[in-house]
Amino acid sequence: MVEVEYDGLLSLNRMERAVEKVRDRLLRSTAALEAAGVPYAVIGGNAVMAWVEQVDEAAVRFTQDVDIVLRREDLGRATEALARSGFVHRQSAGIDMFLDIPGAKARDAVRSSFLARKSAPNTPPRCPTLRRAFPLGRIECCRLKRSCG
């Protein structure tokens, strides 16, 4: 058995860095889409976190990735905008994602879904319209009540 020396301060620093990486990925990707005029909404863990924070700050939990919803016809423009910010487009298992750096793992990605696309059988479409997105600072989040699956 291999013994691992635990350094609490080092662990805390790594946790903070992991949160900052996701936050940076969220801000860079949404800024790139905004600058290019590509409609989008943040969905998934970051949208949940934004909603929970408004209700109970102590209940906020972080996520390891960034999920966005786009219109399918905007994928090309989104790909170009995100590439200018250093993201690399890849498709895996039918999911379009934008890796933070070449060779990065899927967890280091901005994952995209498309409007009115079901994420799984017997589930409602995700965020049927971007007009129902709400602003969180300068980031558009998908409303969680009734408009997202």
What's the short story on this structure?
With 149 residues, the protein is of the alpha+beta class.
Fold and architecture overview:
- The chain has helices at residues 8-36, 44-55, 75-84, and strands at residues 41-43, 66-70, 88-92, 95-99, 109-114, 133-136, 139-142.
- The strands form 2 sheets. A 5-stranded mixed beta sheet has the order 1-2-5-4-3. A two-stranded antiparallel ribbon has the order 6-7.
- The relative contact order is 0.17.
- It is of the alpha+beta class and 149 residues long.
- α1 crosses α3.
Per-chain topology:
Elements: H1 8-36, E1 41-43, H2 44-55, E2 66-70, H3 75-84, E3 88-92, E4 95-99, E5 109-114, E6 133-136, E7 139-142
Parallel strand pairs: 2-5
Antiparallel strand pairs: 1-2, 3-4, 4-5, 6-7
Helix pairs in contact: 1-3
Strand order of the largest sheet: 1-2-5-4-3
What is the terminal separation in angstroms? Answer: 45 Å
Which outline best applies? Answer: globular
For this structure, the quaternary state is single chain
Note the beta-strand portion: 15-25%
* Main sheet record: 5 strands, mixed
Number of strands: 7
Q: Radius of gyration in whole Å, from Cα?
A: 16 Å
- Which stretches are low in confidence, meaning pLDDT under 50 for 5 or more residues running? 144-149
Structural class: alpha+beta
In which range does the helix fraction lie?
25-40%
Q: Order of helices and strands, N to C?
A: HEHEHEEEEE
Mean pLDDT across all amino acids? 77
Tally of contiguous helical segments: 3
